[in-house]
Write a structure and sequence with these properties.
Oligomer: single chain
Shape: flat
CATH superfamily: Phenylacetic acid degradation B
Largest sheet: 3 strands, antiparallel
Number of domains: 1
CATH architecture: Roll
Order of helices and strands: EEHEH
Distance between the termini: 74 Å
CATH topology: Ubiquitin-like (UB roll)
Structural class: alpha+beta
């Protein structure tokens, strides 16, 4: 029996998830890769199996790639330039009292 590709219904593409893992010694989550999964629960399980095989993670985030909004590296100069002239946003602008141990 031959297979007729035209008669076979197209399988829907699983959505793409971006995976972020927080390591045992890390304070933040780091993007480690991407994967396709039918839903967020399966994406979380697959991310655990794929990206934390050596027990190096303490927390995993999976985010639908279509929900991530990011600036373009090509636009970094005009995008971040406006903050350069706002010195008051830097802690060096304010005097630090001597009784404050650290900031």
């Amino acid at each position: 029996m031959s297979r007729n590709d035209d008669a076979t219904p197209a399988r829907p593409e699983w959505p793409l998830y971006e995976v972020f893992v927080r390591g045992k010694r890390g304070l933040n989550h780091v993007h480690v890769g991407s994967l396709h999964a039918p839903d967020a629960t399966m994406a979380l399980h697959n991310a655990r199996n794929l990206y934390t095989r050596r027990n190096e993670g303490v927390s995993i985030w999976v985010v639908l790639a279509e929900d991530v909004t990011a600036s373009s590296p090509d636009e970094k100069d005009p995008y971040f330039e406006p903050s350069g002239d706002k010195v008051y946003r830097h802690p060096t602008f304010y005097p630090i009292p001597e009784d404050v141990p650290h900031i």
